[in-house]
Design brief:
5 helices; Rossmann fold; eight-stranded mixed sheet; globular
Length: about 180
């Protein structure tokens, strides 16, 4: 596996999504869902790699921070898709902390890496972000604000994993005479 290629794919995908997601602002939440098994070409949950998880998180953190966003990393279904966030994000957003620590086969490699690399990591059960990247079909939609819009990125895969991106757009309200921002 080419680590430099993975770093570039992760950084490029994040930068492109942030650029396209015009409704995201400083302080917003960027959701990451990732299967390192899928990145390596295995079935989700069947070949987790802590090394790849750490590589992805260490690549993503500076990109997210450079745009003034906060990273939330979704764990797998074995921890009910809870997310790793920084303690200040939990407090600012009045989120409820849950008592679980991600592990390689109960949470996933990226959530373990985020828990290790964040300054004051905590786990929360639910969060509402404005944009996110799903690497390997981990289904992050439950954590993206409504109305969700898929974003077709130029980065189609990271390693062997399919990449899906989501962003929200504000709800359009009103009748036929209502006007909306573009």
């Amino acid at each position: 596996m080419n680590y430099d290629a993975i770093r570039k794919q992760v950084a490029d995908a994040a930068e492109e999504l942030i650029k396209v997601a015009c409704h995201s602002r400083s302080g917003d939440i960027f959701i990451l869902g990732c299967s390192t098994s899928e990145v390596l070409g295995h079935q989700i949950g069947k070949g987790s790699s802590q090394e790849i998880g750490s590589l992805i998180i260490e690549t993503l953190i500076p990109v997210i921070k450079a745009h003034g966003l906060h990273l939330a990393v979704q764990g797998c279904e074995h921890i009910n898709r809870s997310l790793v966030v920084e303690r200040d994000v939990m407090l600012q957003n009045r989120l409820e902390e849950v008592n679980v620590v991600p592990a390689l086969h109960a949470g996933g490699a990226c959530s373990v890496a985020a828990y290790d690399q964040f300054n004051q990591p905590v786990m929360v059960e639910h969060i509402t972000g404005t944009l996110g990247i799903d690497i390997g079909d981990t289904e992050i939609g439950m954590h993206i604000k409504h109305v969700q819009r898929p974003v077709r990125l130029s980065v189609k895969t990271i390693g062997e994993a399919r990449v899906t991106a989501l962003m929200y757009r504000p709800k359009l309200i009103g009748g036929e005479r209502a006007q909306h921002l573009k």
